[in-house]
Design a protein that fits this description.
- Strands 2-3-4-5-6-7-8-9 form an 8-stranded parallel sheet, sandwiched between helices. Strands 1-10-13 form a 3-stranded antiparallel sheet, covered by helices on one side.
- It is globular, with a radius of gyration of 19 Å.
- The chain is 34% helix and 16% strand.
- The two termini are 24 Å apart.
- The protein is of the alpha/beta class.
- It binds (4S)-2,6-dioxohexahydropyrimidine-4-carboxylic acid (DOR) and zinc ion.
- Zinc ion binds at residues 13, 15, 39, 247, 249.
């Protein structure tokens, strides 16, 4: 198959940032996707419906003219978030999830939750309202091996939480291990997961190929080959519990190529194309549309799009850098070939 037309997909996990960075990257997401769940880990974080409303307006203002793209906002959960704030988020209409960052787990997570028991009241309200909890599933801190953080979190927090709040809708974001695939497959109804393109295409060797490669560093970090294979099997399985979420996370070049480089890979410029590569690698392009365009919308209770996009199997090469405010952004696969290209989009 060299040409593939899909119902327009959505990105169920993306970092759009703010200000000049937002203006530099949002066009890539809006070109491909009809909607995206936008992460709230700004500085300061988006912790209230009022902040989400203002951020939403900045995103819409940064869109290219004529773009048909709907940002779906999220709130950043802290120890002091109140159930009333969840009510306000629900009433606002544009907040579609509440993001749990365990404090210290990743970029801009220092305001995150220090102890899950502190937010039990908020989780109960979310369960009541059908507001999804979006989870960065890693146990932070020096005592847990960096490659075991996801497994530890499943046992210590996520497993008990999905049992305690049996009606809570939960998205286990950017899963990276065979253990997480297993957890999702066995979980009760209402528990799903997103998978990034980099975790489908690479194992952790990519971070150390011939030297240290900061542009392959993201959190949760890439894992073993057997984990990558399990993720690819899950994504292409046709199970509605697994859907697309790029975790595209732009950082200025100097913040990546640094003695203490930031976590995050920028993939928005080629997001759906990279998933096509991954699905093609196992002969399952026929399953891409459901993963990219059906299952996430169904989980969030939103309509599937009526328009389409078309991909063609024609190699192209992303530039070494994109503009990024006053700095530069090194995209994933900079100067290297990508097998699939976005051919065009057709209206409904
Ligand atoms: O690699 C990552 N980058 N993982 C995250 O969880 C956060 C993200 C970011 O905001 O840069
Ligand atoms: Zn993320």
């Amino acid at each position: 198959m060299n040409r593939l037309t899909l119902r327009r997909p959505d990105d169920w996990h993306v970092h759009l940032r703010d200000g000049a960075a937002l203006a530099a990257v949002v066009k890539f997401t809006a070109q491909r996707f009809g909607r995206a769940i936008v992460m709230p880990n700004l500085k300061p974080p988006i912790t209230t419906a009022a902040l989400a409303r203002a951020y939403r307006e900045r995103i819409v203002a940064a869109l290219p003219k004529g773009a048909r793209f709907e940002p779906l906002l999220t709130l950043y959960l802290t120890d002091s978030t109140t159930p009333d704030e969840i009510d306000r988020a629900r009433a606002a209409g544009f907040v579609h999830g509440i993001k749990l960052y365990p404090a210290g787990a990743t970029t801009h997570s220092d305001a995150g939750v220090t102890d899950i028991a502190k937010v039990h009241g908020v989780l109960a309200r979310m369960e009541e309202l059908g507001m999804p909890l979006l989870v960065h599933g890693e146990t932070p801190g020096p005592d847990v091996d960096v490659f075991d953080r996801e497994a530890h979190f499943i046992d210590a927090v996520l497993g008990p939480l999905t049992e305690r709040f049996r009606g809570l809708r939960v998205v286990f974001e950017h899963i990276t291990t065979a253990g997480a695939v297993d957890f999702i497959t066995r979980a009760r109804a209402g528990v799903a997961a997103t998978i990034t393109p980099q975790h489908l295409l690479h194992n952790r060797n990519a971070i150390f190929a011939g030297g240290i490669r900061p542009h392959y560093y993201c959190l949760p970090v890439l894992k073993r080959e057997r984990d990558r294979e399990a993720l690819l099997r899950a994504a292409t399985s046709g199970s509605p519990r697994f859907f697309l979420g790029t975790d595209s996370a732009p950082h200025e070049r100097a913040d990546k190529e640094n003695a203490c480089g930031c976590a995050g890979m920028f993939t928005a410029h080629a997001a759906i194309e990279l998933y096509a590569e991954a699905f093609d690698s196992v002969g399952h392009l026929d399953r891409l549309e459901a993963f990219a365009s059906h299952f996430g919308a169904d989980f969030y209770g939103l309509p599937r799009h009526d328009d389409t996009i078309t991909l063609v199997k024609e190699p192209w090469t992303p530039p070494q850098v994109y503009e990024f405010g006053d700095g530069a952004l090194v995209p994933y696969r900079a100067g290297e070939s990508i097998a699939w290209r976005l051919a065009g989009t057709e209206g409904a």
